[in-house]
Amino acid sequence: MRFELPQHKKLVHEMVVPIRWGDMDAMSHVNNTIYFRYMEICRLDWVFKVGASLDPRGQGPVVINAFCNFLRQLEFPGDVRVTLYLAKPGRSSVESYHTLERTDEPGVVYAEGGARMVWTDYEAKRSAPMPEWFRALLD
At a CB cut-off of 8 Å and minimum separation 6, what does 20 contact? Predict the structure, then answer.
């Protein structure tokens, strides 16, 4: 089942991730868990670039759920273009969406997925209102 990107979304980041030999499983294609890793790599690359903290004494985003629709099998060798879209934020959360394509097959989506990120006070271990500087990146 394909998901539809929400109407109010923003492309915030994209990057290329190499498919490593070790990403494959016994069936000679990329293991399903690695698709989540590719999305995580892209999401964290964006988080670091915008300056969000991952200091355990501060505040920052935490993933509370994630999903992936596997549309085609990725295989070694190759590179994956991972895109990150963010939807309109709530008080403390924002939905992220990803598409994964091989760089040698532009426009052919191999997987699509996403995650809900919640702005969190790491020490208190609870959600916190998203700061305005971060929210401004999403609008």
Answer: 76
| Cβ atoms 112, 38 nearer than 8 A | no
pTM: 0.91
| 108 within some domain | yes
Question: What pLDDT, on a 0 to 100 scale, did the predictor assign at position 8?
Answer: 74
Find the mean pLDDT for residues 94-115. 96
What number of CA atoms fall less than 13 Å from residue 122's CA on the CB side?
12
Task: Supply the range of the domain harboring residue 19.
Answer: 9-138
**Residue-wise DSSP of 27-57:** TSSB-HHHHHHHHHHHHHHHHHHHT----TT
